[in-house]
From TrEMBL:
Keywords: Lyase, Metal-binding, Zinc. Pfam families: Pro_CA (PF00484). Coiled coil: none annotated. This is Carbonic anhydrase. Zn(2+) binds at C37, D39, H89, C92. Belongs to the beta-class carbonic anhydrase family. Its cofactor is Zn(2+). The keyword Acyltransferase does not apply. It comes from Gomphillus americanus. Binds 1 zinc ion per subunit. CDD domains: beta_CA_cladeD. It is an enzyme of class 4 (lyase). It comes from the Eukaryota. Reversible hydration of carbon dioxide.
């Protein structure tokens, strides 16, 4: 067992020993979903005021709405969420490369077969943070599989200060 796996096992045992919230309902109590980045510097529960059972939290590289769409639809259509909050962040890795760069790294590290496997993959990097938030909101609002009644908003989390600011 790796040190990381051992840590998970031990920390989970400690958590489970005092866990008392096993009776929470399946749908999120506050009926919203947050899409945010997988960046390890972000603690969505603490930074965005989410208590256990309040909301769905979807994390991926860049807090990308297209990557999150399947989960957003399930949250919205099957589990009754009525609000979508999209949060990207400052100093995001997605601001630092282009598709060709990512494809090149994969090929360099894993060989030509892996390079070919990602040759058409859009890693969805973005050069402008606020515009990326606006583009993702436009994508969600225009998507016919997302309820038109859902409230959709976009935010930027500042990793340097812990503050959020609304973009749209």
């Amino acid at each position: 067992m790796s040190a990381i796996q051992q840590n998970l096992k031990e920390r989970n045992a400690k958590y489970a020993s005092s866990f008392t919230q096993g009776d929470l309902a399946l749908p999120p109590a506050k009926k919203y979903v947050v899409v945010t980045c997988m960046d390890a510097r972000i603690d969505p529960a603490a930074a965005y005021g989410i208590d256990l059972g309040d909301a769905h939290v979807i994390r991926n590289a860049g807090g990308n709405a297209k990557d999150a769409l399947r989960s957003i639809i399930i949250s919205n259509q099957l589990l009754g969420t009525t609000e979508i909050i999209l949060v990207k962040h400052t100093d995001c890795g997605m601001l630092t490369f282009q598709n060709a760069d990512a494809r090149g790294v994969v090929e360099k590290n894993l060989g030509s077969e892996a390079g070919q496997a990602v040759s058409n993959l859009d890693f969805q990097p973005f050069p402008d943070l606020e515009q990326a938030v606006k583009d993702d909101l436009e994508f969600l609002k225009a998507n016919p599989a997302v309820s038109k009644q859902a409230t959709v908003s976009g935010w930027v989390y500042e990793v340097e200060t812990g503050k959020t600011r609304q973009v749209a």
